[in-house]
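PT: before anyone asks, these are the final sequences, not the draft ones from last week. 405 residues across everything. Please model them as a single complex and drop the result in this thread when it's through.
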Amino acid sequence: MNDLDTDLPKGIALTVLDERYRSNPYIILDRIRRATPLHHDDELNQHIATHHDDVKSILRDKDVWSDPRKGKQGSFIYELLGGANDEEPSMLLMDEPNHKRLRSLVSKPFMPSAVEKWRPRTRQVVTRILDGINESEFDLIKDFANTIPTVVIAELLGIDASHHDNFKIWSDQSVKTAFSPFPDPNDLKVAEIAQQKLDDFFLKEIEVRRKNLGDDLLSELIRAEEEGDKLSQAELVLQCNLMLIAGNVTTTDLIGNGIKALLDNPQQLQLLKDDPSLIKNAVEEMLRFDSPVLNSARIPNRDMDVQGCPIGTGESLIVSLASANRDPNVYPDPDTFDIKREDTHHQSFGGGRHICLGAHLARLEAQEAILAIITRYPDIKHSQKGFVRATVPSFRGMESFWVTT
Ligand code: HEM
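LR: through. Structure below.
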């Protein structure tokens, strides 16, 4: 397919490593969405779907693959996510029947009713972190949003508080290069060491827990059994890693982007202060308006097409969640942040078999964190020190975000 607009951005210009995309991906995605149903980026060898209905149906297609080893050599997903590797990948990149087996073993503790039980503990974590902030001007990412998801998941896994800081460092180092098409060699080395430390750490925790099972999430995963089947040691370690890495940067970014959207739109902030029961809808709108995960990916298991644009078996099909969420064919005034929007459905947690396992936990953390901050600091606003956008490919968030209270 030849794009109508022949000069559409490609390669690095479609990642947060590029200043323009980092500061506002929506202008670029809008241009692509208008120009073509399927954008072919021949620099990185990927096809990018940007229209809401295409993104939605590709994510829910039961036959397409996620395992990079099934991709064509040289295609984006194959090269980025280890198509040449021998080892079984984590659940995110696994196909049937292994994916179904693993997902059914680990999914119970992530069901909405199970997650809801963790609300009081999450509230305590948020209060404790807020109690530690002594200045009237602070960095909302470093001092608040960064800490919440790591501490919550670590507490849920039953990990001692003395390890929480290491946990955060290792998980950030590991995710920094995970989806980067242009990784810095030094960052890659650091990520490898961090991954090894996380693996060793989880192995030790599993050993301790096996001797003395408790009511924490790690014990639940060790106990998990479906039709006589159990998680192996290696699967337990991979699962712990995935939860930490998939849930960390993402939830921090949701809290940061969400609070920024409120401070950028003071009338919306006022609405929420006046009626805190709007928080659930507000968080869904935050997810739609400024999605923490920009893209997901699939590999066609057959020659297929997207609105008549052909794409071959094994090629890389990237779905732009951020673009789908701003498609004017689906959302009236898509660029307006409206916490009372009636239809806030979004693609930010992906969809189909691989839909985010931690979605309910992420929602709960964001609801608690955002309500707590605007309640404790009713006069919170942007500080003159501003904010700096993060440069972790595939994610949209901030490295720092200064506020005054
Ligand atoms: C705002 C926060 C979060 C966002 C935006 C997010 C987004 C996503 C997305 C887009 C996917 C891929 C879905 C697909 O391709 O269809 C995913 C998968 C996943 N997420 Fe999340 N996530 C968040 C938080 C979490 C948390 C807190 C956890 C766990 C503690 C988690 C665990 C997972 C896992 C295990 C998968 C793989 C599921 C599978 O392949 O079956 N995520 N997430």
